[in-house]
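Exercise 7b. C-alpha cells:
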C-alpha cells in the first residue's frame, strides 16, 4: 500500500543549539535531514524551491512594473501621518508588500544636524581618532568590503534618539505589521514596548571613495537552519509547505539563540533601521535592499539544490555576515533598489530578513552620516539581552553583541543613568522612578 503524504512518518531534524564542532559534517547532516523531511511531506526539494522562486519572481515583476511607471519602489511616509494614525490602507499594504520604509521628518532637520555636531564634538573631545585602531573584527569579510562604522554607542545624541517619544511611535507602528499574538493567544512580543538596542554610528565625509558594503542579510548564519527554535520558526519551509510561510510571523524567533561571534545580534529585531544625520542623495553610496520580505525562503532552501556542494551553505558560515552572491543568488540582484534621497532627520527601515547592501561611491558629495537604531520589541530574547545592555551602558563598554573595544569607558560627556526617561528605563528593563519624572 502506498502511503499518502499525510500518512508518511515525518523525520525529525537534528539540531545544534551551539556552534557544531565539525561544521562541514553538521552541514551535510542537516541538508540530508531537510531533504528527507521535505520529501516526507510529498514534495521534492526542487519542487519546493520552484514554488518559492515563483513567489519571488512575482515580487520582482511588481518591482519592474513600478519602475517602468516611474513610481517609487520604497514606501515613503510622513512622521506626522504615522503619529496621527492617518496612514491609509493602501500605504500599509505597500509597506507590507515591500518590507521597507522611509519616514520623512521623523526628527526635525535641525535637531538631527545638531545631533551630528554633538557626536563630532563627543568623539573629538575624547580623542577617538587618536586612539582608534580600526575594525575590531572581520564580520563583513565574506562580502569583501568594510563599512565606515565607528564603535560609539553611548553619546547623548544616540541615547536621546533611542528613548524619544518620536522613535517609540515609529517603532510601535512598524512592530504592528508582525503577528505578535498567535491564534492560540500566545504573545510573542509586546509591540508597544521596545528594547533599547545599542548600535553604532556611520560617518563618511565628503570626497570619500568607498567600496560600500556587499549584499547580505543579518538575522543569523548557520543557526537559521541548525537551532531548534529557528527550525520551528521556519517550519513551513523545512517541510516543503512553502506557500504557508509568512515573513511577518515571529513564532519561535523571540526566544531562540544565535551562534556566538565577535559581532552578532542577540536581540530579535522586527526592522533594522537608521536615522539620517546628514542629507544624502540616492546616487551617493546609499543603502540598497531587495524589497521582498519573503526572500528568506529562497535563501534557506537554495543550498539544498544539487548544484551546491554537500558541505556548503552557499558561503554562509559562523561569525561572518550572511552573504548573498551572484554565484548562488543571481536572480535576486535584479530587484536591488536604492533608497530615495533622504534628509537629516529622516529614518530608514527594512524587514530584519531582507537582503541589503551599501553601494560604492567615488568622490562622495556631502556627508553620509547615520546612527543605527532598530525596532526590537520587548520579548524573552530581548529581555535577556537587556541585562547585558544595562551593564555595558553603566560602564561605558561596548555591548556584548559587538567587539570588545570599550573606547567610551573613560569618556567625558557620555549619557548617564540619571538622564534616562521612562521610555529609556523600560527599554533597559529598569523599574520606573518612584516620582515617574520624565527626562527629555
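Sequence design result:
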Amino acid at each position: 500500500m502506498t502511503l499518502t503524504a499525510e500518512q508518511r512518518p515525518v523525520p525529525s531534524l537534528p539540531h545544534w543549539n551551539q556552534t557544531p564542532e565539525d561544521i562541514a559534517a553538521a552541514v551535510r547532516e542537516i541538508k540530508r535531514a531537510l531533504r528527507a523531511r521535505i520529501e516526507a511531506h510529498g514534495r521534492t526539494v526542487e519542487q519546493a524551491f520552484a514554488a518559492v522562486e515563483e513567489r519571488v519572481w512575482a515580487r520582482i515583476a511588481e518591482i519592474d512594473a513600478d519602475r517602468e511607471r516611474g513610481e517609487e519602489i520604497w514606501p515613503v511616509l510622513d512622521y506626522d501621518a504615522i503619529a496621527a494614525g492617518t496612514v491609509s490602507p493602501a500605504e500599509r499594504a505597500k509597506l507590507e508588500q515591500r518590507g521597507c520604509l522611509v519616514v520623512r521628518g521623523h526628527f526635525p532637520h535641525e535637531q538631527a544636524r545638531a545631533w551630528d555636531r554633538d557626536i563630532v564634538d563627543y568623539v573629538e573631545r575624547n580623542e577617538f581618532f587618536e586612539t582608534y585602531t580600526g575594525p575590531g573584527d572581520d564580520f563583513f569579510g565574506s562580502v569583501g568590503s568594510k563599512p565606515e562604522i565607528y564603535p560609539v554607542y553611548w553619546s547623548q545624541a544616540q541615547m536621546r534618539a533611542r528613548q524619544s517619544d518620536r522613535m517609540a511611535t515609529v517603532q510601535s507602528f512598524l512592530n504592528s505589521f508582525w503577528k505578535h499574538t498567535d491564534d492560540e493567544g500566545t504573545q510573542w512580543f509586546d509591540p508597544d514596548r521596545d528594547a533599547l538596542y545599542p548600535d553604532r554610528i556611520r560617518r563618511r565625509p565628503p570626497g570619500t571613495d568607498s567600496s560600500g558594503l556587499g549584499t547580505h542579510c543579518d538575522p543569523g548564519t548557520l543557526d537559521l537552519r541548525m537551532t531548534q527554535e529557528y527550525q520551528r520558526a521556519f517550519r513551513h519551509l523545512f517541510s516543503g509547505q512553502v506557500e504557508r510561510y509568512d515573513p511577518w510571523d515571529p513564532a519561535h524567533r523571540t526566544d531562540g539563540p544565535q551562534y556566538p561571534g565577535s559581532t552578532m545580534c542577540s536581540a530579535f529585531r522586527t526592522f533594522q533601521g537608521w536615522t539620517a544625520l546628514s542629507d544624502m542623495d540616492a546616487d551617493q553610496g546609499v543603502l540598497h535592499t531587495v524589497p521582498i520580505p519573503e526572500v528568506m525562503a529562497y535563501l534557506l532552501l537554495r543550498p539544498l539544490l544539487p548544484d551546491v556542494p554537500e558541505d556548503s551553505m552557499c558561503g554562509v558560515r559562523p561569525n561572518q555576515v550572511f552573504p548573498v552572491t551572484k554565484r548562488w543568488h543571481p536572480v535576486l540582484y535584479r530587484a536591488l533598489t536604492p533608497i530615495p534621497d533622504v534628509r537629516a532627520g529622516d529614518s530608514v527601515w527594512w524587514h530584519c530578513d531582507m537582503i541589503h547592501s551599501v553601494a560604492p561611491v567615488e568622490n562622495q558629495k556631502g556627508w553620509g552620516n547615520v546612527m543605527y537604531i532598530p525596532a526590537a520589541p520587548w520579548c524573552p530574547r530581548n529581555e535577556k539581552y537587556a541585562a547585558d545592555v544595562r551593564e555595558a551602558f553603566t560602564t561605558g563598554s561596548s555591548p556584548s553583541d559587538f567587539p570588545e573595544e570599550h573606547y567610551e569607558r573613560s569618556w567625558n560627556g557620555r549619557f548617564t543613568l540619571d538622564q534616562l526617561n521612562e521610555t529609556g528605563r523600560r527599554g533597559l528593563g529598569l523599574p520606573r522612578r518612584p516620582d515617574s519624572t520624565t527626562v527629555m
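Instructor comment: The first helix runs from residue 23 to 40. The chain has one domain: 29-427.
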